[in-house]
Amino acid sequence: MNQPFATQVEIPKDSSLLRQNAFINGEWVKAKSGNTYSVLDPATSNEIGKVPEMNAEDTKEAIKAAKESFDNWASQTAKHRHDLLQKWYSLILDNQQDLAIILTLENGKPLNEALGEVKYGATFIEWFAEEARRTYGDVIPSPMKNSKFIVQKQPVGVVGIITPWNFPNAMITRKLGAALAAGCTVVVKPSDCTPFSALALAELAIRAGFPKGVINVVTTEQCTKEVGLELTTNPDVKKISFTGSTMVGKLLMQQSSSTLKKLSMELGGNAPFIVFDDANVEAAFRASGQTCICPNRVYVQSAIYAEFASRLADRVSGFKVGNGFDPQTTHGPLINEKAIDKVTRHIEDAIAKGAEILVGGVRRSGNFFDPTVLTGMSTDMIITSEETFGPVAPLYKFDRDEEVIKLANNSNVGLAGYFYSRDVGRCWQVADALEVGMVGVNAGMVSNCEAPFGGVKESGFGRSKYGIDEFLNLKYIHFGSL
Description:
Blueprint: E1 22-24, E2 27-29, E3 36-40, E4 47-52, H1 56-75, H2 78-94, H3 96-107, H4 111-131, E5 138-140, E6 148-155, E7 158-162, H5 170-182, E8 185-189, H6 196-208, E9 215-217, H7 224-233, E10 237-243, H8 246-256, E11 262-266, E12 272-275, H9 281-290, E13 297-301, H10 302-317, H11 337-352, E14 356-359, E15 372-375, H12 382-385, E16 392-398, H13 401-409, E17 413-414, E18 416-420, H14 424-433, E19 438-441, E20 456-457, E21 460-461, H15 467-470, E22 472-479
Parallel strand pairs: 7-8, 7-10, 8-9, 10-11, 12-13, 12-18, 13-16, 15-16, 18-19
Antiparallel strand pairs: 1-2, 3-4, 5-6, 6-22, 11-21, 14-15, 17-20
Helix pairs in contact: 1-7, 2-4, 2-5, 2-6, 3-4, 3-6, 4-5, 7-8, 9-10
């Protein structure tokens, strides 16, 4: 495994995109307390900058600004909202390199991967710009001659958006695009680890012409729970859209029940990746290698288990761990020490229960960890039931289709599942049987703006393609005495 090495850190050409204040009511503001916290580059542990340490009082100001701007924004035509979103989309593409640099600085992922995320994130703004003009209602045939039944769609109101660190650009755009297209105003609370991507998007939204108060961004580290509680209990917030762990999602749901808010939850996953013995092993092997941190459990049929494990280990041994700004880097750092500890705990538990390391398993300096392939996995290992969120591919052996479907579904979450097979009948049967919200059949990547993104069971609810409806209320109008 190649050793990580220091690389010259890049900075955005447009320095005004690297904002170090929060964004409330069209202004770049500090916390009322004056407190700040440092955001660190996970590759170097150097400070990128400081942002405001905001609390409930600051969040109330952001909610107030969103509420006061709501009526005007909601009353705009869908065409007007479409046009602003399209301008924003164009600006994101015009500034994609700088946005990718900011993303790599705070998240650590390789620059090419960050650039891919920025482009992918922009597609949601474009998609929902178009969806803004398609929020059709209905005319329901009335059983009475002198009546008309109309159903129309109206924006929910102020939306609280809470996002994680792993996709700091695309998680924001997927939610913001739908909310703004629907006519909602928003208060965004990005991850404390990755606030700069959200703030850069807010800067571009200003340039696109969004009115003040429509988009607000609150930053916090120590006061995260306090800010979350304000968003979920403030009666002026009508909806919460959250991506994160199932545990935190349950807490936010509980808090939101006091005001019966509308909710969209994209929660934890534990994705199975199944390789059947009739699969195109090379294709499955490539997909597994490219997305080795996405599937949590890799099931390989006995007849090809040894071959697949060997070839995957060979490929992974060629990966290069390093700074995201090094063009040869394939895998950047984990986000922080907590993430390193979880990966280490999962690997140590697996080894203690009989697993073997084919490649990797070594922590480098700082937040770097070598991509790891484990064999000899069993269902009593922690990694089987917990999402690792790290560069570990644990390989499980299976014999029969019924057996692997049962293993794959033996989870309280169901976000995504993947499998490879050349048998069309098997493909349909397994796709139907997997208890997940998204299935990749001979495909290792399933997320795109055109398709619904979301899970079942404790992976949450709400879908992105149909997500604009998640930000709209239905109103039934009965015209009588006509």
